[in-house]
Amino acid sequence: MKLCSTPAIAAKIARGILKKRFPATKFSVRANAYALTLSVSWDDGVMKEHVTQAIEWLEKDFVWENQEYNNSLYITYERNLSPERKAIIHNRLVDEKIDTEWFGEFRSTFLRSAERRLIQEFVLSDGIK
């Protein structure tokens, strides 16, 4: 028998998974029962792709602890950069003589790319242990 999952149940499961998988990052997981959504947000640390891979399966029917759940849920993800992290990334772009003024609509793409390079060089942490 399938149980009907609520956003509150999905939020509880998501919190546990994110805390276990990414212990260095503090997440905010908010459930909205009326809109059938989860809002997941965090500062710095883990990239959005890793968080999405960890919990996107909650949007569909799923099995958790030997119980089948019927689910129809939408998850939104929001990763924010702290001013300190933005400054480090901006300084790297300036060092590379990249003009950050003309980024326009591509700004987030350039910032993510520069941030990934800094993570690969161990200048910044990716929040994954």
Automatic annotation (TrEMBL):
Protein name (record): Large polyvalent protein associated domain-containing protein
Report the residue ranges that make up the Large polyvalent protein associated domain in this protein: 10-75
The organism named in the record is Paenibacillus nuruki
